[in-house]
Amino acid sequence: MKEKHLKVWFIKSAAALAVATAFGLPLALQAATPKDTLVVAWSIDDMITMDPGETFEISTGEIMGNSYDRLIRFDVNDPSKLVGDLAKSWAVSSDGKTYTFELKPGLKFASGNPLSAEDVVFSLQRAVLLDKAPAFILTQFGFTKDNVKDKIKQTGPLTLSLETDKSYAPSFVYNCLTANVAAIIDKKLVLSKEVNGDLGYAWLKTNYAGSGPLKLREWRANEIVALERNDNYYGEKSKLARVIYRHVKEAATQRLLLEKGDADIARNLSPQDLAALASNKDIKSTSTPKGTVYYFGLNQKNPNLAKPEVREAMKWLVDYAAIGDTLIKNIGVVHQNFLPIGLLGASTVNPYKLDVDKAKALLAKAGLPNGFKVTLDMRTVQPVQGISEAFQQTAKRAGIEIEILPGDGKQTLTKYRARTHDIYVGQWGADYWDPHTNADTFVRNPDNSDSAKSKPLAWRNAWDIPELTKKADAAVLERDAKKRKTMYEEMQADFRKSSPFVMLYQQTEVAAMRSDVQGLKLGPTSDTTYMFKVSK
Amino acid sequence: MAISRFLLAIALTYLGLLAVTFFIGRVIPIDPVLAIVGDHAPEHVIARVREEMGLNKPLWQQFWIYLSKVVHGDFGTSVLTSNPVLQDIQRAFPATIELATLGILIGAGLGVPLGVWAAVRRGGLVDQAVRVMGLIGYSVPIFWLGLMGLVLFYAKLGWISGPGRIDISYEYTLTRVSGFVLLDAARAGQWDAFANALSHLILPASLLGYFSLAYISRMTRSFMLNELAQEYVVAARAKGLSEMRIIWRHALRNAAVPLVTVVTLSYAGLLEGSVLTETVFAWPGLGLYITNSLQNADMNAVLGGTIVVGSVFIGLNLLSDLLYQLLDPRTRSR
């Protein structure tokens, strides 16, 4: 009796559950994204602001590149060439200090406001006055809060001039003006939102005032960024009406969305995912070398690591070939220079390979025939983790005991910036498309004291290099492009031999996409991946 | 008198919670300035931002400033999202509530009857099944189970919608008012959007439900075994009451008192947000929000999240106390 009752009850509940599940059935059948909308699955939790005067992150770089214009851009197909964006023409004076620009006529912002030289001057001055993280890209030409109103001037409705403090290599100045921080914003709109003289800073953090081919419709942090076609754009209009970036942190989830057609493009797939998708007819991929290099930084405050022979020995203890074939397959290429390929003067010489005997001999010469103990601060993300563990194994063969200290990204970085590490696995992305961006940090260290004003990577590893610093300073003033290139090649040769940086690889960015997606080309910098050229 | 003592206790709980979180947040070896300016900013910018954030002031002073703002309802701005923390939480928390509520409905709705049956038919098939489910629930990582669920029900069978709260095509046709997608869709009468949101919700909710089911059914089983061994059950049987009546009306009624605590605590646990589930399902909930903030030492956001989680626990504790009084007459006289 009791059993029967229980059974009936359970059958009833099971039936109810089945109905509930079946309710969900027909709902999921229509997959695929809308025809006029591009859906991009991407990990975008690094986004903290939408103000071009402040953005410095990879994901926001791309948003800015698509939604804001600048005076000039570099040609994505040949980054050594410049193309006019808002500027019709540009020139530099014979003394190399005054740059003049003339804008294209009839330009408009997405808001409908006309775009004139006044907006350009305001935007560049504003970036200097706000002095946020990326402002140094402009202030390195001698602009300060006090002088910027005189140095960046409007000279006519469509003309303006910039006056630098020294006679820099023109390519250096122009390259810096292609950066996000030099993006042009709608003066009238931004100033109408100004609070307590903040130049619209509080408002623009989450809003939009640009003129680019796509305009920002909405940013819901850690969830979604929606861009829409800007019909006021001066050039060829965006092919798609909408581009939606969805924050999807997990690579495996991105892959599922892509396979099902709920995302058109997936941006953070792992080498394993990419290999598995290679045989899928509905999916294709594109890749491009990025301006980001990975390295081990050897702190020169550690007496063992400070010995020149030990520095060199470390470079012979990395199994570059194995790492290239496995851990970074499809997502990077072995690269032993501080300038990523694509930048002026970047060297492709990679002299080091795994050679334990050579390393042992060098260690013996350094008076450490039995090796030594050392720690390595590692972020627990791939492929950094795999590379560190591989290095731990190969170094052990020469008697070097590496203790790996795993940590979270910001945590290990905090330690690195205080230069209290022994070895740190670092990555560095170019801030703007000019060789000085990396020379400035890898081979420049004007003051190695603890209280130094500037703390580049060379400082973080306590590498005192007055000679190289002078060379780096001279290279930005060399106006002959050929000579300038030679100078960077020389610095890299010197760096390969003596530096406390074991350069590992240059990142390759890969995007996998549905086969109907056309025209996606990943740019060498984050702000040159143009979604407005994509169609499907 | 009792009420004022109660309020004082709550105030002290919040104060303690905030103090502990605040000071732990300040001793973790992560520089909060990094989240704002990044790794490439020049030193003078870093120094200025540090000053602007008040990080150069003594710790107790920073805490005092924070507290006095909170008392006035200002929870500060998240440095990661550039939004007021309250606004962020109003967005993230409903996503978690939707997930947790459906999860606990599934967990308790199935877990209690299963536990009852397991106790009644001890050693039987259901009892064994409950034990195995419990074991899997405790030992299999939710992350893995979530991915497998997606692969099977979303990718292979196509029964449900994938990660995220709603399809992109509904993203800009549905007006978000409350932050609860289901509520907003129902209120607007957009039943296709409602169904779509539900098909997104069902798998992660079932997954969370499964994990609470594993716990709730085990606890129900042991409470019921305890009750069924009591003398009043023997007396009821002797009186000739039906077995159904004895189990559901008498034994379960008494087992319900401790069960209420188990269920409310499970619910509270789900409301904290499940970081792993939210990661796999790209669910913009509270768990991800707090974790991401913590990893970047975005302390305003972490503290705001802590207050929400604390409130959930205090609120649900209160609720379970009230339910106690309702279910157990003995507690009323006290």
Overview in brief:
The complex is a heterodimer of chains A (536) and B (334). Chain A is of the alpha+beta class and 536 residues long.
Write structural notes for this entry:
- The complex is a heterodimer of chains A (536) and B (334).
- By secondary structure, chain A is of the alpha+beta class.
- Helix content of chain A is 33%, strand content 21%.
- In chain A, strand 8 and strand 9 form a beta hairpin.
- Chain B has two domains: 2-71, no CATH class; 86-333, MetI-like fold (Orthogonal Bundle).
- In chain B, helix 5 packs across helix 10 and helix 7 packs across helix 10 (191-228).
- Chain B is globular and about 85 Å long.
- Chain B is mainly alpha-helical.
- The chains are: A alpha+beta (536), B mainly alpha (334).
- Chains A and B meet through helix 1, strand 10, helix 9 and helix 15 of A and helix 2, helix 3, helix 5, helix 7 and helix 8 of B.
**Which stretches of chain B are poorly predicted, pLDDT < 50 over at least 5 residues?**
none
CATH class wording of the largest domain in chain B: Mainly Alpha
The largest sheet of chain B, given as strand count, sense and whether it forms a barrel, is:
none
Distance between the termini of chain B: 15 Å
Largest interface, with Cβ-Cβ < 8 Å? A-B, 66 and 67 residues
Secondary-structure arrangement, i.e. CATH architecture of the domain at 289-509 in chain A? Roll
Work out the radius of gyration of chain A. 26 Å
